[in-house]
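Pilot study result, target chain (1912 residues):
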Amino acid sequence: MTIKIEFPLLLGDKDVVRVRRWSFVRSTRWMLVSCVVLLVLTYGCEAQYQICEEVGGSYSACTPTPMTITRTTNVTTTVEPTNKTCGLSGAEYYFRLGKKTRALKCDASSTQYKHPPEYMLDGTTDDTWWQSITWTIPEYTNDRTAFPINITLSFNKIFRMTENLTITFDSGRPQKMFLQKSLDYGQTWTDIQYYARDCSEFPGIPTKYTTETPTTVICSEAFSQDRSTPRPGGKVFFPGSTERLKETATREKYYELLETTHLEEFMSFTDIRIVLLYPATDSREKFTRKNPMDFYQYYYAISNIELIASCFCNQHAGVCLENDQRQFHCQCSHNTAGRDCEKCLPLFNNRPWRQGSFIPYHRGQANECIKCQCNDHADSCTYNATYGRGVCDSCTNNTTGYHCELCLETFYRNTSLPLSDPEICISCDCEPQGITDDGKCQQEVGNSLKPLGQCNCKPNATSRRCDACFDGFYGLVANGNCSACKCNVDGTTGKSNVCRQTDGQCPCKTSTTGKHCDTCKDGYYLFPTGRPDAECTACGCDPGGSKTAVCENRYGTCTCRDHVAGPKCHRVEENFYIPALDKLLLQPDTGSCPVSADLWMAGQPFDGNVFAVCPPAATSAVDFQFTDGRNQQLYVIWPHYVGVRYSLSGTTQRVINQLEVTVVGNSGADLTGLVDDNGQSVGSTCPETTLSAVSTIPVVFQPGLSTGIVSGKAIVNLDRRCRYKFRLSLQGQPGDTESIRIDSIVLIPALSYDVMGKSFAEYKQAGDTSLLTEKYITCIRKMSSLLMRDEALQQEPCGSLLKSVAAELYNGGRACNCDSVGSLPDTKCQMHGGQCQCKPGVAGRRCDVCHPGYFNFTSSGCQPCSCDAGGSKNGDCNKQTGQCDCRQNVAMFGQNNTNGMLNDRHCTACVSNFYGFGNTDGCVLCNCDQTGSTSPQCANDGQCPCKETIDGRRCDKCKPSFFFFSANGCQSCNCSTAGSESVECDQIQGICKCKSSVRNGGKCDQCKDGFYNLADYNPRGCQPCFCFGHGDSCKSAEGFSETTVSVSTTDGWGSENEFIVAPAEFLGDHHSSYGQLLTFQLAKAGADIKLENQVLVTIEGHALKLLHYGDQSANGTGDVSINVRLFPELWIIESKGKKPTSDEMYRILAGMEKLTFRKSVAGKPLIVSMVSMVTAQLGDKNPTTFVEDCMCKPAEFVSGTSCQNCTGGYQRYNQSTLTPYDICVSCSCNERSTECDENSGVCLSCRNGTTGKHCENCSANVISPQCNECVDRFFGMGIDGCRACNCSEIGSLNLVCNKSTGQCLCASHVTGRVCDVCEDNYHSLTKNTGCTVCSGCYDLVGEEVVKLRLLQENLTNVVTALEASDNTASLDSFPVRLATANIAMNKLLEFLRTAEASEETNRGKLSAFNSTIKYLSSAVGLVETEKKASISALLNEARNNIQKAVDAKKQITTHMIKINSLIAPLEVIAASLNSLMTSLKEVEAYLQNISDSASTDLTGVLNTVSLIENTAAEAGRLAESLLQVVQSMLVKHDKNGRDITALQGTAVTLKSLGVTTNDEANRVFLKSSNALEAATRLQNISQSLGTSSVDFVNLNTQLNGLKSRADTANTQATNGTTELQNQQQTILQASSLAEQQRMNTVNMVQSGDGLEERAVNASRKATDAQRNSDDVFTSAQNMLNTMRNFSTKAAEVETKANTALQSVQALDALSQQVISDSNTLISSLTTTQQSASLAKEIARQAKAVAQQQNDGMKTVWNESQASVASLDQDFVNITAKNGRPQEVTNTIVMPAQALCDSYGMGIDEATAKTRLASAAVANATSSVNSINTKASNILNELRNLGNIDTARISALQQEVAAAQTLFDSQALAAAITVIKNEFDLQSQWLLTARQKKTNTGQEIIRLKAVQVSIIP
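Predicted structure:
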């Protein structure tokens, strides 16, 4: 018995080689089994040789882990010749071998059809492959032996092949090819294996290798034997080292052979070449007559090349890495180096390099490189064969020797350090002046008395280096000998006589000087002669206040600067001061930060008039003013500290900032008298070397208010000859939240200028300049903060230092010169800084200006600006006027603001038509879009008032889901929610953005070709057609309903690892579940289980496995319900790590083999329940659309909704697979059948006489080969063949019968088919003689016998027919069923009596309904009468008004001709008149809708409207003329541009007011009788304009006319209100009538409900009757069986039973008709009720709208009164103010404009309300008419009511005729005629039903009598 054990050989994290199978005999001991297993697990992948260094430091031979190197990035693929890849020169076509019916394309420029070389290495075999061009006939003819193509894989590194090289062909495998390798990167090549169908084509090449000769190059025929048509997917293998040595018994042997047979070298390579010589063919290329189409099948195609190998590292590395250049290199161990570890490290050449060895097993020999001993003083060594070890190269650290163990000359060893220390050798460093040789020193201690390192000194020289003299002498180094010091001990420290060795300088006291310390220093006096312990006395002069530090040498008096006094020059004269050092400051000028001023406050001061405000988290810059060349300096060039004064709130510092100081040119300063150190005049030109120089100073801002920062290290050198640019750059950070205020830059001189050796006296006289500098910087930093500046200047420790430096800088004191106006009387300035004492609000050193934020400098000081913080840029204002600096578009003094008022100087509001007061950027123009907005004025947040369907702040775009922006609004996108990605669409064309599978270009409501089932839950919109590959298009199948495969519990399910397995009902073909829900619940039992990124469910099928992962929502402790749709986007293919395609998803669902659910995670259990999967089944209970109905390809002969079946007469083409994916072919039945089993192909229903799987055989006793005739003595050919004749040997003449009927040939007087019966009146059948005749008496009964036989035959036929439909087995006996039928008949009779009685009830209800109709008719008539009367009155008034308007029109026209010659029409007036015409047309529609009967009168009304429109147009032009006159007068009296603009605004305002008033007057005019008065007043205005001259008196007269027009509008508004009240009363009456109609309708519905209940009972009884009738018919059949010999009675019973059955069926149809009629009535009554309710609601809304209109008209009237009064008063004052146009504008025009705007809005609102009221009244009227129509429809519905007495029809006609005059006579008469005809038919039907009832009763009685006669 043979056992097979399979082990996976793991090569790496991502690489798995094929399973190795080992076979051995069972008799082998199990210990051997264990050994073999261990052998496979160890040396199959050489895992034990991956560790190069063992624990403890010992080395082992090692090699990297094998990997699939064809998947790496360092491999390059080359095809030679380069033009042999298909599609490079354009599209090429080819055929699959053996499939020339379908041409395929190759095109390198197409992503879909290209087949480049890199596809051989992409790891896939299904979708991508490299392909060559096809073979050509000329190529074959010229060289019949080959179609050569070389494919080279270059790996740019030496690798060793461990496993097989596998080449997968997408074409057939080549007939001939061979492999080559290169070890020198393609320079030379070696053949390694040949492949051929016949290896004789490679002469001399063996066909096998052995374990002992594994490097033999062989030829293999195993991979080229595709003799039949080769198919894609064939593989070609080249065995690796593991395969070649697989027969070795032990590991030791394996590694021994690996090295001894040189297999390791044989399997090593840098390049692999595949030489293709002869492609797979079908041998047709060898035909003499070659077909070019055949050669289109011959090509090479490789889909995958897989090569597993390990980096070759000479057994010195266990890891191989890829570098940045995508090259592999060994990570060498064993102290080796090189890409392949082919050499030793530079310092490890103590023995020659050797390759590692696998022998002995299992650690091998590392042959590691050994380090040379160089004491760490060399980086490399060289092996010296003579010396036998490595010699160090280039010793360092002043060492020498083979091992760098000695010091060089002039160096000596440091014995305190180890030999390997870098400082082991120390330089002798002898002093050349003090030694006797070239600098050597003592290198070793030895026996010498000299210390180690001691130099050889000259006489009188000492120290190790010989570099010093003895004490009391000096000059050895300088002179080569020593001299005496000669110090004055009264002036030396410690009475010392020891001087400095170099120059003989004695050690002086602090106050003495000189080489011998024999004089006092400058700044001291009184030398301490005879007092060796005393010092000279210090002068104590103030360094800055005195001209020099040297004082009078006896008394110590100092020399002071100008206006400085005191013995030591430490104070300033009275009324003088010393300037502060921060006098040189720069104010912000320009840059990206706004430069502003603000209110100066003592708690937050700033030192100038302005500051810059830089925003947070932004990059900004500030440029500063610099007064060129005027700065005071000690020298033309002087270093300065740079300070920045600023304010920064918050707690976050600003770090990334810098100050740039750039030299930009000459200063032009007057430097007369300025000289350099040599006394030469200094020129005024900036040095060229300085020009364009840039200094950069980093600045860090710490939070603080009115603070400063001074960089203590960064200093800027200022040259008075140069001009500078200062720029402060600030880099905001994401965390910055506060703006920073930059106040100024302060330039403070440094204490010294070291380059020129110049400094301030304080610095010169300081004992410790560093300490002084530190103190100075601390003080100037304190001075840079304005809040601490006074303290720094006036108090110690800074005051005296800063004052002294300033006194020297400014050469003494300066006069205070305080301003007498701004400073307090009798006060003095500060001694340091000179600040005078100022009055409130006054600033400046001299108190001569106002503080920022103050103005009006007077003897009382300055007053605050009081600027509004929301509208002003800052708190500052104009120093003379006090006008605050307003933000952009904020109203200044005298400007109109948003409140309609003139603004003050404090910036308190936005300019009109702007918004956003309080924003830092000022106010913003509303800029409302004229097309989309209803007003140009926006809200406070900037939102304009938009039209419906329009959106955006400016109303400039459509709302979401709308498009086509226009003045009429936008149109709805109407995008399909299922097919579009969003509700939004293209803003121009309205085209929606469709999902990927939905047809573009419309509303996304149609699937693309090849897709179906548009559904909102589908992320692609539609799902693709599947059709099992037999169709490209489909639609949703009909007749399917949604269902589920579901279970509530999973108890009893199978288990696999952490999953449970679903049972069989979830498996199989579920492709219709594509995209549907798979749901299940997971119970966690309270455990905290993380299901995110865990596989929760798997599906297996079609050789693929789908995974679905949990998401974050499934985490936690709570139970979760998982709902996942079967869409590809939600699943991952396990083997591919990517989402499946739609086809893959379909195929998996079509063949589901396994469905599993997660049952535990990390040992924590999960309980799976409520598993459900949505699918479909035939039915219409819950119709669905997700089942496809494919259009199958006709040529493939398939059918079914998914083309899953073969068409009738066809079978599967591929009998080995039998899948729905196969095409179907015609059944093979030898033309003897048209049907077969689609899977097996077995023919069905073979024609008679044939049999066999393909109907190929003849049936039994049938003559072949045609199988169409029985053999002799057989007949009746059928499915089973022919039957034997069986002719009687006695009665037949022979044994042959008729082959069709089987009738034998009988003897005389013999009958029967087989001739075995004597004829009538014959007997005694004998052989040869036949039958003997009977006596003659029997002839007498012959005729009767014939009759009885005929009767029997007929009866038999009838019984046979009845038996065919017999169902007596399920029924009771006939008597029982007959009794049951009687009971049912009695119940039916009772029901008919009840139905007859219900006629009276129906008549009563009909009478009530007629009464309701009469009431409704009278109500409608009343309404129409009232409306007609109202209309007549209105029309009469309209006629009168029309005539008056015509007269007025003539007069106005005459005047307008004159006006038109002066004034052109304006577009605004035209637009207003168009709006007026629209309103008049709405009024016209309102009048027309009141009643259809008033059409003639309404024509007159329309004529009136037309005339009124003309009148209104003339009035508009008149108002236009008035506005032009006002504008003309304003132009003549004002030449100023701003006044002209304001007065033009006045004209526009008056024009708008006139137009608005005119519009309102005309609207009200159409609803009242006062049009003539309005026209007369307009005529008077026109006359006055025509005769007046242009002056203000006549202008006032014209405006009084305008007031009269407003009075007219007032009267008209009052009349309009009265009319609306009348309309309101009419609407209330209509509402009352509608409510009554609703109540009547409710009563009718209740009556209908009763009829419905009775109809349902009738239907139930009719159903019972039908069931009983079936019983009666069945009983009749049973009775017939008992009467077979009584033909006449049986026929009679049959006839009666059929009659009864027909009667019952008719009765059933009648019952069904009653049910249908009742349902129709109920539906009609319900509709009527709904209509009535709707009419009531419309009336209620109309009432509310009318009330609103009434209120609105009252408001308009009140506002018109106020407007007229205001205009009258305003224009009376115009004459008095005509010389002051600005005042007129401010006091009259602007308020009038605002008032006009408000009136315009009120009038528009009133107009809108009037339109709504009119529309509501029209709707209410229409609703009443609709109710009348529905009432007529109800009359028509009555024709469906049954059981109505015909005698009642005449009365009904009379009742209906009473209402006929109120309705359309023709339509009502037709309706009555229909009702009458229907009632006649109903009556006739009832009579027929009664007759049928009577007949049925009689039949039942007769049946009972028959029953009695049969069963006594």
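One observation from the pilot: The CA atoms of residues 745 and 1879 lie 111 Å apart. A full batch analysis is planned for the follow-on phase.
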